[in-house]
Specification:
The chain is an alpha/beta fold. It has 2 domains: 2-75 and 351-455, Aspartate Aminotransferase, domain 1 (Alpha-Beta Complex); 90-349, Type I PLP-dependent aspartate aminotransferase-like (Major domain) (Aspartate Aminotransferase, domain 2, 3-Layer(aba) Sandwich), CATH 3.40.640.10. Helix content is 36%, strand content 16%. The chain has helices at 31-43, 77-80, 89-101, 113-125, 140-155, 172-177, 212-226, 253-263, 315-318, 334-349, 352-373, 401-413, 438-455; strands at residues 56-60, 63-66, 71-74, 132-137, 159-163, 195-198, 232-237, 267-271, 295-298, 309-314, 377-383, 386-391, 416-417, 419-421, 427-430. The strands form 3 sheets. The protein has a 7-stranded mixed sheet with strand order 4-10-9-8-7-5-6, sandwiched between helices. The chain binds pyridoxal-5'-phosphate. Pyridoxal-5'-phosphate binds at residues 139-141, 144, 167-169, 238, 242-243, 271, 273-274, 299-300.
Length: 456
């Protein structure tokens, strides 16, 4: 499927007919965006930031069109959410049908089939062919919190192990689980207790190269010594880290952790909120090494932009919780469930895992060539369409966050929406919608290359 093959609709409809082009017609942000930004500054709390304050009129395929008529190439997907696009026809139709039927009853009051259908799909698609059950929520942080609640009840233990560079959300418990202080935790404590941090496998930043198996032993030894295996309810890990810098652990790290968890009756929770739903070129990040977690958290890519999240896991673990112990007013909202079913259909029909692998090859090929002639590019890494470069002072591993900021800003000025990430803020990450056209992606990578050549 390419976006251009679809029937044209109004350019501002956000539908698939949106011209798939990079087009800069004003300064970025333009005058209308600047007007809106002035209003926003008076009305919206300062703590809610925006990477690029261009105000959106429409989005779809691989572009975001702003209120000044600029068309930006989207390498952000709303932080890995719109894998199927911002206006996937299958999502739009499913949402429209559901919204006309009913918007809400609350699944805990009067249930509906869409919720059950999403849980069936999660059982089928997540790693492992054991019996699974799910509970649905509205945000990723809520899913992570609930995974911990479930793991504590099921194990009768308290301790939660997380990793360096981890990101799990902004609620009180998930702030404790997130590694980076500024901006996520700074001033917001005290944080929840019984959260312990173990060393991650971060191949580019190992002082001495070590294998994934050795890195897993380093982590589990720390857990045994500092926490005690019999105190640990769960180990929570992102199979490919998101906000922490698109860190891909060395092969053998995840299987090593999984083996240790099995040996010690510790539940392994894979936080697949950013890596899941086709992003890494498989349905889930764990699939690459055949790791089967006890619990999986999902959100972001699951529902084509509508707020939905899930915890899916071993039926016996999920059912350890008493009736009424899980839920929430909006969790598994019928419109969000309809969107998820449409999005999952789009992922299957358009083979989005395959698209993610193809886009990943294109990006890694370009970025690897770029790294060879740009000493400031210290590392190129990623899996599928979850790709990043880490910028450093040439010849060292010393992070260069200022360069990442300058490069990202220059890309924005040229009409390419990029994001930075990483504990040190020096990682440029690329996560386009999986339905982006290859020509458009190549054009965006040309811009990245030119901008890097000018600034590095
Ligand atoms: C974004 C993210 C979360 C938090 O999800 P929200 O929907 O923002 O609450 C948790 N874990 C990972 C890995 C994420 O990328």
């Amino acid at each position: 499927m390419t976006v251009t093959e679809q029937a044209p609709t109004s350019p501002l409809s956000g539908g698939p007919g949106l011209p798939q082009e990079r087009r800069v017609v004003t300064e970025i942000p333009g005058p209308r965006s600047r007007d809106l930004h002035a209003r926003r500054t008076d009305a919206v709390a300062r703590g809610v930031g925006s990477v690029l304050p261009v105000y959106v009129a429409a989005a779809g395929g691989g572009v975001i069109v702003d209120v000044d008529g600029n068309s930006l190439v989207d390498l952000a997907s709303g932080i890995g959410v719109t894998g199927v696009g911002n206006a996937s026809p299958l999502v739009v139709e499913a949402v429209q049908r559901q919204v006309e039927a009913f918007t809400h009853t609350c699944f805990m009051v009067a249930p509906y089939a869409g919720y059950v259908d999403v849980c069936d799909a999660l059982a089928e698609l997540t790693p492992g062919d054991h019996q699974k059950k799910s509970a649905l929520f509205s945000s990723g942080a809520e899913a992570v919190e609930n995974a911990v609640k479930i793991a504590r009840v099921a194990s009768g233990r308290d301790a939660v192990v997380v990793f360096d560079h981890a990101y799990h959300g902004r609620t009180n418990l998930t702030m404790a689980m997130t590694a980076k202080s500024m901006p996520y935790k700074h001033g917001f404590g005290p944080f929840a207790g019984e959260v312990y941090r173990a060393p991650m496998s971060y191949p580019f930043r190992e002082p001495v190269p070590i294998s994934g198996e050795e890195a897993a032993r380093r982590a589990t030894t720390m857990i045994e010594k500092a926490v005690g295996a019999d105190q640990v309810a769960c180990v929570v890990i992102e199979p490919v880290q998101g906000e922490g810098g698109f860190v891909v652990p060395a092969p053998g790290f995840l299987p090593g952790l999984a083996q240790w968890c099995r040996t010690h009756d510790v539940l392994l929770v894979a936080d697949e909120i950013q890596s899941g739903f086709c992003r890494t070129g498989d349905w889930f990040g764990c699939d690459q090494e055949g790791v089967v977690p006890d619990l999986v958290t999902t959100a972001k890519g699951i529902a084509g932009g509508l707020p939905l999240a899930g915890v899916t896991g071993r039926a016996d673990v999920m059912d350890a919780v008493h009736v009424g112990g899980l839920g929430g007013t909006y969790g598994g909202n019928p419109v969000a469930c309809a969107a998820a079913l449409g999005a999952i259909r789009a992922m299957r029909e358009h083979d989005l895992p395959g698209r993610a692998r193809r886009l990943g090859e294109l990006m890694l090929g370009r970025l690897t060539a770029l790294a060879e002639r740009t000493p400031a590019v210290g590392d190129v890494r990623g899996r599928g369409a979850m790709v990043a470069i880490e910028l450093v002072r040439p010849g060292t591993t010393e992070p260069d966050a200022a360069l990442a900021g300058r490069v990202s800003a220059a890309c924005h000025a040229e009409g390419v929406l990029t994001l930075t990430c990483g504990t040190y803020g020096n990682v440029l990450r690329f996560l386009p919608p999986l339905v982006i056209g290859e020509d458009l992606l190549a054009d965006a990578m040309d811009v990245v290359a030119e901008v890097l050549a000018a600034h590095a």
